[in-house]
C-alpha cells in the first residue's frame, strides 16, 4: 500500500497536466499534418504545412525577426533588471523602503496588458506628448517618426512589460547571498567590479536564468504587443499563427505552433545547460 | 401554501397576456409582432456580427418593440466568418458580410431565408434583388451581394445567381467605401485612388489589413496608378495577385505606410491623432473622427467606390419559436426604425421607404439626397454632427451607390491571395 502512496499523491497533478497540457499539444501535433480548405479540416497525413513553414522565405524572416525581438528585449531587460535588483538588494538598507520600492516596480502590472500598450500611443505618436515636449524644448524640429509603429516601440513595450520578470528572480537570489562573502571579497582586496564579476554575478546565475526564461518565452509567444506597437507593420511568429487562425488555416497555424514550441524548448534547454537553476532554489 | 404557489404563475401569465394585449391595442408595438408576447419574451437570439451593426441601441429597441432579447457578440470581419462556420451552434443569427457568405454558406452553417415570410421583400433595394441599382447601371466587379444572395433549394450549396424565393442573407446595411483624408493635413485636393501612393504622404498613409477588403483597396490604387491592369479585380489571377502584392511590398519598404489597421476604432485613432492623413476608411469612422471636432473627409474619387454589404443569416439549427422570433426580428429590421437608425450613421438600409418615414425631411435630404442640411444634423447620441448647410461627401444615395466599381470579394485564388497578403504584412 505504502508503495503506491507517492504515485497517488502525484496522480491529481499528473492527471491535470495530461488532460490540459499534453493532450492539447498532442492534438496540435496531429492537426499540423492535416490538410485544409477555406472552412474545413481534412484529416490526412500531409507534410505541406511544414513544407510551407520551411520553404517560405517569409516565415524564415518572421522567425528571425522574433528571435531578434527576443534577443534585444532580453539584453535590455537584463541590463535594467540586474541593476534595479542590485539597487534594491545592496544599496537600499532599510527593509520598509525596500518593500515600498519593490512594490513600485510592480506598478506596470496594476492595469491590463492591453491598456498599458495602448497608453503608449498618445505618448509616442507624431503629435504625442514626447514629440511635443521635445519640439517645445527646441531639441528637434521635426517630430520623431520612429517613436511609434516601429521596432523601437515594440522593444520599448516589451521592456516595459517584462523587466519585472527579470528583477524579481535576480533580486531573490541577491538577497540570499551571504553578506559575509562580500566582506571577505573586500578584505581580500577585491574592488567593486571584481566583487561584482567574481562573487555577485556567479551567485545570481540561477535568478538570471529564471528571468531569462520568463522573458524569452514570453516574447517568443507574443502577438498582441507586436501588432499594436508596430501598427501591423512587423510580424512575429505568434502574430503569424494568430493571423492563420483568423483565416481558419488551422493546420498551418498548428505546424507553426509546433515549430515555435520546439524552438522555445531548445532555447530553454540551452539556457538550463548554461545555468543550473536548481542549484540555488 | 402549495395552492398559492400554483396560482401564482397563472396569474402572471394572464397579466402578461393583458399587458401584451394592451400594448398591441395601444399601438405601442410598431414592428410586426404576431407571436404571443408571453412566449417570445423568454426567447434569446444570439447574434454575432461586426461593430458596424452590432449596436446596443438596436438590441434595446428590439427588446422594446418585440419583447425578446437580442444578445450581441461583436468581433472583426474575419472572426465573424470563422465563428459562423465553425461554431454555428453557439449563435442563432449571423450578421455577416456578403463576401464572407460566399465561403460560409457552402459549409452548411446557415439555412436559407424564406422570402415569403419577409413582408417587405419586394421593397428591398434592387442592388440585392436584381444586381443593379437601376436597370442601366453596371453590377460592379467582385462578390456582389446579388451573386451570392439567393439559392435554389434548402440544401443547395451553390448560389442561384438569380432571384429565387430563398435568400442566403436578408440585407441589412451596405455602403460605398473610399479613402478618408485629413483635409487640413494633406495640403492638396485628392482626386484619385493613386494619391495614396503620393510620396508627399510618405509615412502618413494606411491601408486596412483584412485581406479580402485590403486587396480590393490595393487593386483600386494599383489600377489607378496604372501599375496593374485587371481582368476582374474581384477575381484576380495569380499573376495579378503577385503584381498587386509586389507593389504593396515596394510601397511598404519605401516607408509609405504608417500602420495597417484591422478594426474600426484603430482607423479612427490613426486619423484623429494625425498619425495618418490618407487611408482606407469606413464611413462611420469618418463620422467618428469628425464628431471629435477634427476635420475628416470621405473623399469621392474619380475611379468610383468599393462597396460592401452585409445581412442577417439564420443558423441551420434554428427552429420553432426561435425561428419565428428570428423572422419577426428580420421583418422588424426592415420596418423603418432600424433603417433610419443606420442611415443616420452614414450607412444605407435595405428598404428605403420605411426608413424615410422614420427620418425627418432634413435628415433624409442630407443623408440620402445629397442636399445641404437645413438644420443641424444630430448623431444618434445627441451630439451635433454637422452644422446646417453641410453637404454629405459624395452626394446622394444614387450618386454614391451608382458609382460602385467593385465589391468586397472572395476570389477563386483565395488561399493563394491570403498567403501572399501575409507575405506583404511580414515583409
From TrEMBL, chain A:
<keyword id="KW-0813">Transport</keyword>
<feature type="transmembrane region" description="Helical">
    <location>
        <begin position="152"/>
        <end position="175"/>
    </location>
</feature>
<feature type="transmembrane region" description="Helical">
    <location>
        <begin position="100"/>
        <end position="123"/>
    </location>
</feature>
<keyword id="KW-0472">Membrane</keyword>
<dbReference type="Pfam" id="PF00528">
    <property type="entry name" value="BPD_transp_1"/>
</dbReference>
<feature type="transmembrane region" description="Helical">
    <location>
        <begin position="253"/>
        <end position="275"/>
    </location>
</feature>
<feature type="transmembrane region" description="Helical">
    <location>
        <begin position="196"/>
        <end position="220"/>
    </location>
</feature>
<dbReference type="InterPro" id="IPR035906">
    <property type="entry name" value="MetI-like_sf"/>
</dbReference>
<protein>
    <submittedName>
        <fullName>ABC transporter permease</fullName>
    </submittedName>
</protein>
<dbReference type="GO" id="GO:0005886">
    <property type="term" value="C:plasma membrane"/>
</dbReference>
<comment type="similarity">
    <text>Belongs to the binding-protein-dependent transport system permease family. CysTW subfamily.</text>
</comment>
<feature type="transmembrane region" description="Helical">
    <location>
        <begin position="12"/>
        <end position="34"/>
    </location>
</feature>
<dbReference type="InterPro" id="IPR000515">
    <property type="entry name" value="MetI-like"/>
</dbReference>
<feature type="domain" description="ABC transmembrane type-1">
    <location>
        <begin position="63"/>
        <end position="271"/>
    </location>
</feature>
<keyword id="KW-1003">Cell membrane</keyword>
<feature type="transmembrane region" description="Helical">
    <location>
        <begin position="67"/>
        <end position="88"/>
    </location>
</feature>
<keyword id="KW-0812">Transmembrane</keyword>
<dbReference type="GO" id="GO:0055085">
    <property type="term" value="P:transmembrane transport"/>
</dbReference>
<keyword id="KW-1133">Transmembrane helix</keyword>
Automatic annotation (TrEMBL), chain B:
<protein>
    <submittedName>
        <fullName>ABC transporter substrate-binding protein</fullName>
    </submittedName>
</protein>
<dbReference type="InterPro" id="IPR006311">
    <property type="entry name" value="TAT_signal"/>
</dbReference>
<keyword id="KW-0732">Signal</keyword>
<dbReference type="InterPro" id="IPR006059">
    <property type="entry name" value="SBP"/>
</dbReference>
<dbReference type="Pfam" id="PF13416">
    <property type="entry name" value="SBP_bac_8"/>
</dbReference>
Amino acid at each position: 500500500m505504502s508503495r503506491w502512496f507517492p504515485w497517488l499523491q502525484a496522480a491529481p497533478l499528473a492527471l491535470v497536466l495530461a488532460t490540459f497540457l499534453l493532450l492539447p499539444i498532442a492534438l496540435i501535433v496531429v492537426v499540423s499534418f492535416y490538410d485544409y480548405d477555406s472552412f474545413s479540416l481534412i484529416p490526412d497525413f500531409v507534410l505541406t504545412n511544414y513544407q510551407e513553414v520551411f520553404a517560405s522565405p517569409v516565415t524564415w524572416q518572421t522567425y528571425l525577426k522574433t528571435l531578434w525581438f527576443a534577443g534585444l528585449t532580453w539584453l535590455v531587460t537584463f541590463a535594467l533588471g540586474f541593476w534595479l535588483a542590485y539597487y534594491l538588494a545592496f544599496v537600499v538598507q532599510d527593509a520598509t523602503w525596500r518593500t515600498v520600492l519593490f512594490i513600485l516596480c510592480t506598478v506596470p502590472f496594476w492595469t491590463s496588458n492591453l491598456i498599458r500598450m495602448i497608453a503608449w500611443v498618445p505618448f509616442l505618436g507624431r503629435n504625442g506628448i514626447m514629440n511635443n515636449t521635445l519640439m517645445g524644448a527646441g531639441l528637434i524640429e521635426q517630430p520623431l517618426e520612429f517613436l511609434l509603429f516601429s521596432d523601437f516601440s515594440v522593444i520599448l513595450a516589451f521592456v516595459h512589460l517584462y523587466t519585472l520578470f527579470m528583477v524579481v528572480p535576480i533580486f531573490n537570489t541577491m538577497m540570499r547571498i551571504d553578506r559575509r562573502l562580500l566582506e571577505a571579497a573586500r578584505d581580500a582586496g577585491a574592488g567593486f567590479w571584481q566583487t561584482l564579476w567574481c562573487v555577485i554575478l556567479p551567485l545570481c546565475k540561477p535568478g538570471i536564468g529564471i528571468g531569462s526564461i520568463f522573458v524569452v518565452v514570453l516574447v517568443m509567444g507574443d502577438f498582441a504587443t507586436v501588432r499594436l506597437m508596430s501598427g501591423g507593420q512587423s510580424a512575429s511568429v505568434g502574430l503569424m499563427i494568430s493571423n492563420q487562425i483568423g483565416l481558419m488555416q488551422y493546420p498551418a497555424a498548428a505546424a507553426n505552433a509546433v515549430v515555435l514550441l520546439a524552438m522555445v524548448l531548445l532555447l530553454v534547454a540551452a539556457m538550463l545547460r548554461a545555468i543550473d537553476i536548481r542549484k540555488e532554489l | 401554501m402549495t395552492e398559492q404557489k400554483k396560482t401564482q404563475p397563472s396569474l402572471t401569465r394572464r397579466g402578461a397576456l393583458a399587458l401584451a394585449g394592451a400594448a398591441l391595442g395601444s399601438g405601442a408595438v410598431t414592428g410586426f409582432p404576431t407571436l404571443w408576447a408571453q412566449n417570445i419574451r423568454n426567447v434569446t437570439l444570439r447574434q454575432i456580427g461586426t461593430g458596424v451593426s452590432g449596436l446596443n441601441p438596436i438590441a434595446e429597441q428590439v427588446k422594446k418593440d418585440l419583447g425578446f432579447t437580442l444578445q450581441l457578440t461583436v468581433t472583426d470581419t474575419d472572426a465573424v466568418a470563422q465563428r459562423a462556420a465553425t461554431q454555428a451552434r453557439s449563435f442563432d443569427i449571423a450578421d455577416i458580410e456578403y463576401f464572407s457568405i460566399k465561403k460560409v454558406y457552402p459549409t452548411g452553417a446557415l439555412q436559407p431565408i424564406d422570402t415569403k415570410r419577409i413582408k417587405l421583400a419586394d421593397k428591398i433595394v434592387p442592388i440585392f434583388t436584381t444586381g443593379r441599382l437601376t436597370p442601366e447601371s453596371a453590377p460592379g466587379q467582385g462578390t456582389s451581394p446579388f451573386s451570392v444572395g439567393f439559392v435554389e433549394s434548402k440544401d443547395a450549396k451553390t448560389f442561384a445567381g438569380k432571384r429565387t424565393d430563398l435568400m442566403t442573407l436578408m440585407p441589412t446595411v451596405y455602403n460605398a467605401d473610399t479613402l478618408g483624408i485629413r483635409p487640413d493635413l494633406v495640403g492638396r485636393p485628392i482626386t484619385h485612388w493613386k494619391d495614396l501612393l503620393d510620396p508627399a504622404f510618405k509615412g502618413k498613409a494606411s491601408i486596412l489589413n483584412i485581406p479580402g477588403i485590403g486587396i480590393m483597396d490595393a487593386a483600386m490604387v494599383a489600377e489607378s496608378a496604372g501599375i496593374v491592369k485587371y481582368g476582374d479585380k474581384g477575381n484576380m489571377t495569380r499573376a495579378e495577385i503577385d503584381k498587386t502584392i509586389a507593389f504593396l511590398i515596394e510601397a511598404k519598404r519605401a516607408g509609405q505606410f504608417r500602420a495597417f489597421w484591422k478594426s474600426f476604432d484603430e482607423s479612427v485613432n490613426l486619423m484623429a491623432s494625425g498619425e495618418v492623413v490618407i487611408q482606407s476608411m469606413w464611413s462611420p469612422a469618418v463620422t467618428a473622427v469628425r464628431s471629435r471636432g477634427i476635420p475628416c473627409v470621405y473623399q469621392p474619387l474619380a475611379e468610383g467606390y468599393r462597396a460592401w454589404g452585409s445581412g442577417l443569416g439564420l443558423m441551420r439549427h434554428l427552429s420553432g419559436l426561435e425561428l419565428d422570433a428570428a423572422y419577426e426580428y428580420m421583418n422588424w429590421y426592415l420596418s423603418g426604425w432600424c433603417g433610419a437608425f443606420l442611415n443616420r450613421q452614414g450607412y444605407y438600409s435595405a428598404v428605403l421607404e420605411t426608413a424615410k418615414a422614420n427620418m425627418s425631411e432634413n435628415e433624409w435630404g442630407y443623408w440620402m439626397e445629397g442636399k445641404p442640411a437645413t438644420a443641424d444634423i444630430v448623431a444618434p447620441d445627441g451630439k451635433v454632427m454637422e452644422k446646417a448647410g453641410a453637404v454629405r461627401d459624395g452626394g446622394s444615395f444614387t450618386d454614391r451607390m451608382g458609382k460602385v466599381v467593385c465589391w468586397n470579394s472572395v476570389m477563386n485564388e483565395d488561399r493563394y491571395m491570403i498567403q501572399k497578403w501575409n507575405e506583404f504584412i511580414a515583409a
